[in-house]
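Appendix C reproduces, verbatim, an entry submitted by the partner laboratory led by Prof. M.T., so that reviewers can inspect both the input and the predicted structure.
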Amino acid sequence: QVQLQESGPGLVKPSQTLSLTCTVSGGSITTSYYAWSWIRQPPGKGLEWMGVIAYDGSTYYSPSLKSRTSISRDTSKNQFSLQLSSVTPEDTAVYYCARVYVHSDYDYWGQGTQVTVSS
């Protein structure tokens, strides 16, 4: 059973960088052909895909967030991380990490973590 757990600050000030980590257990983040995503849901809105890091370390980002987003990984800890720079209150959301098999559906999700951007 694969489990994902998000962690990071629940409150970030405007203009700062939001940093979250997803710790994966029950499966390796380097296993072919899985990819590991960050997805968020602002209050009252739908899910927004932010980006992904694949089993081989390649990354892909949402065009609308690409200039502010970075996803990295630590294979020794079986973790992957999200950094979102220059945040505004519009970045307030529940942030999820999730696993997806290439050309398939998401099969495992973290429980989500609330991040509020406020001074």
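The chain has a mean pLDDT of 97. Additional entries are available on request from the coordinating office.
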